[in-house]
Amino acid sequence: MRPLRLLHTSDVHIGGGFHPPEHGDHHDHCLCPLVAIEHLVAANAVDVMLVAGDLFDHQRVSASLVAEVLGRLGSLGVPCVVINGNHDVHDDGTVYDPALVDRSGVVFLDDHGGSQIELFDGALHLWAKAMPVHDRQFRPLTDAPLRPDPAAWWVVLGHGHYEPVEQDQFGRSSPLSPAEIEATGADYLALGHWHVRTDVSTENVVAWYSGAPHGVVSSGQMNLVDLCPGHGVAVQSLPVVLPAMGCVSPGPTLGTDLNSGRIRTNLY
């Protein structure tokens, strides 16, 4: 095994609006979280970016916005692995047009039955199921394969609702249980759907909701995950700092000065 560092976020909800008064006036199509991702990837020598669902708030966002968002994630300089969530379900109306995904360079795990990929010459294996519908029958972690290589890191992604005790048929949609978490055998399970950063680890699997990077109810954090040979997995929180006023909006002029930490924005 080789050491690897992951940055894990979820529930970015681009296109959903962002107007907490304490954070100034942010555009409905706020891209400030992308600026934060770009900064945190560069500042922390991240090897892989993980987005565990709900990158977009709904299926009505424009193709041009989807192309810009995916293009920026695909230009991070490190692999970016994305799964969809309940707000951007992967059905016939999906925003994840294959042509846009292919041009972006983002790795989108699009198989409803589960997709497995390898990175870094097989040093890292990842698996996730694409969500076709958000209901009680969809379970994000079932059918996860056994660890494919004992000498490689094994990371699983999922988007759903953690149930410490199994509910009946009237429980929440896309449930996942402690037993299902444990059954993945993952070194790290990157979860999305809860907007507050939460540790749901089991005896043998380190599992976290990263929380949403912004919004009225959010952690305002991302998870920095170190996969350390001989030591296991270390998870720490990184705060997400957005512009105090104004907003980064879609368009060719947005950017970040990573050396100074200043964010260049279009103001609204």
SSE inventory with pairings:
Elements: E1 4-9, H1 32-43, E2 48-52, H2 63-73, E3 80-83, H3 98-104, E4 107-108, E5 115-119, E6 124-128, E7 153-159, E8 161-162, E9 175-176, H4 178-184, E10 188-192, E11 198-199, E12 206-209, E13 221-228, E14 232-239, E15 255-257, E16 262-264
Parallel strand pairs: 1-2, 2-3, 3-4, 6-7, 7-10, 8-9, 10-12
Antiparallel strand pairs: 1-13, 5-6, 11-12, 13-14, 15-16
Describe this structure in words.
With 268 residues, the protein is of the alpha/beta class. It has a single domain (4-264), classed as Metallo-dependent phosphatases (Purple Acid Phosphatase, chain A, domain 2), CATH 3.60.21. 14% of the residues lie in helices and 26% in strands. The chain has 4 helices and 16 strands. The protein has helices at residues 32-43, 63-73, 98-104, 178-184; strands at residues 4-9, 48-52, 80-83, 107-108, 115-119, 124-128, 153-159, 161-162, 175-176, 188-192, 198-199, 206-209, 221-228, 232-239, 255-257, 262-264. The strands form 4 sheets. Strands 4-3-2-1-13-14 form a 6-stranded mixed sheet, covered by helices on one side. Strand 15 (255-257) and strand 16 (262-264) form a beta hairpin. The longest helix has 12 residues, at 32-43. The chain is globular. 45% of the residues are buried.
